[in-house]
Amino acid sequence: MFQPYFTLLQIEQIRKPNTQSYLIGCSNFVFRQNLNIKVEIFVDVKDSLIDLLDENISEEPFRLTQADKQFAEYVVNTVNTNWTEEGFFFFFFFFFFFFFFFFFFFFFFFFF
Prior knowledge:
3 helices; two-stranded antiparallel ribbon; 4 strands
């Protein structure tokens, strides 16, 4: 199951025996508490934490390599040196119109 935004009202979907795996996103701190659901990895974006709640999961895949760190530094430096408000607004409007036209054509071609 994949739910980009998951609410407490949907918790029974996870508790069903036929749910083998799930990836959900939520902003409710109640999910952090024990809700009688199996959680292996908990990612807290607000506090920048990754909690491995299953002791069988290794931390190794979550460690950044030197190449990862260099790439992140390159991206940050590029954005910091080339940032302009005009570029941001151009990107925002381009993304908005692209999304709007994509949605319009998808709706038009598949439903009419």
